[in-house]
């Protein structure tokens, strides 16, 4: 069931692990089952030890016939089966709790990323973000399915065992009582060092993921430039870094397992020696001695398992440290406002707008410009002059550092990106296409469009003719990033997609790049038909395209060149 909770807001928790435990509380029904299973496991273990000790007492000390202990043996088998079933329920409940928590966190993360949009995610690279939403959320699972149940078992079972061992043989009970704290103590001491290692492991993993993504996307260029060997060496280096970081984490995990085994073994051995002497001196019955001896390893087992799952704790805590700040990342001020739905084209005013990438590079400066409602305003200028930046500012993909953009007099800064995006359509320089059919790609921004609307949009973007030539027409499947069509055809498809959207503002970045003169003329005619009902911002280097605009504004080095206006 989808999580209907709002994308997380408020102040970020100081301790990410505390946040994760808070999340676990949302599945308290499952957690109660886990605690119940832990208690039942403890009671069944005690009963098993008692039955086994009684059976041995009767067989060895009281020389009973084997047939006399058959009921005890049957009961033992029933208890063993009971323990197995409780273990299955425990596992099922922990897995169900983990699935619920993961689904809820993932939903909220997606919605948070959507609310933040590109403007709110400036400074975040996409590969680590994708890693956080996918692998990062998965890494919470061992924390919930292994560490949390083990922590409950480790808190409950040893106390339960001590309660029955102390009255039976208090000396052995004291050995258990005083040796037990060493296990969590060493677990924490060793674990502290490995927290840093876990963080380093994650950094290496995201670096490797980002590098591999770049590599796969740029493979054709790398092949042509003959840089594959060099890149292969870089991949080998990054993978080696990751391997070294993984080995360091595993070394600590093995070391901690060794320390835990050592204390548990020494503790059990001391209990065995005490019981041995007390049996020898005849002050303890075989039944009592065996009962205590059987419970000694069971006493350490939950503590040892907790120690072993400490690795899962660190892994989950490291993942929570990446997820919680993202979930609680504040929306930029004013992002919550919504623009009312509009059917008329807006008038847009740039008032002294400045933006520089990273606060220092490129961008635009002190732009004052009016895009009249329903008109076509074109931006011209040399490469790097700031045209795309202005389009990105208008689309709300980046926010002005100074100045304001007014939509029908309303500051764009005060509006949630989603309500603004619902009003616009845009054709970027490199439009996004996914591995799906042409129809699915066309319907990306307007899922309800019917056949007649699709046909009209394709006609307007002069895309109908080339689609008609494809054997499967609109049902032709495209590859990744639109593979299967030429650059010019993809441009026309992107334009058709923009026409299809019932938007009141169109932003077109080089819509005619890659088109021949005939198609360019057709697209310009279509644009003129679209204007009137839409405000259009058109970016182009081509004179024939610029000619269809009502007004051409020239950008030079990030500023408007008033002398170049046409
Ligand atoms: N992501 C970025 N990080 C840093 N600087 C950038 C970034 N994107 C663009 N710039 C810089 O901002 C300036 C304006 O870039 P912009 O893409 O707006 O130019 P443009 O006029 O659209 O160029 P073109 O016609 O080549 O597309 C350039 O100097 C560019 O180097």
UniProtKB/TrEMBL annotation:
Taxonomic lineage from the root: Bacteria, Pseudomonadati, Thermodesulfobacteriota, Desulfuromonadia, Geobacterales
Record PANTHER family: ATP-BINDING CASSETTE SUB-FAMILY B, COMPONENT LINKED WITH THE ASSEMBLY OF CYTOCHROME' TRANSPORT TRANSMEMBRANE ATP-BINDING PROTEIN ABC TRANSPORTER CYDD-RELATED
Localization: Cell membrane
UniProt-recorded name of the protein: Transport ATP-binding protein CydD
Entry's transmembrane regions: 31-55, 67-90, 147-166, 172-191, 252-275
Organism of derivation: Trichlorobacter ammonificans
Domain called ABC transmembrane type-1: residue spans: 33-315
Keyword Transmembrane: yes
Listed Gene3D superfamilies: ABC transporter type 1, transmembrane domain, P-loop containing nucleotide triphosphate hydrolases
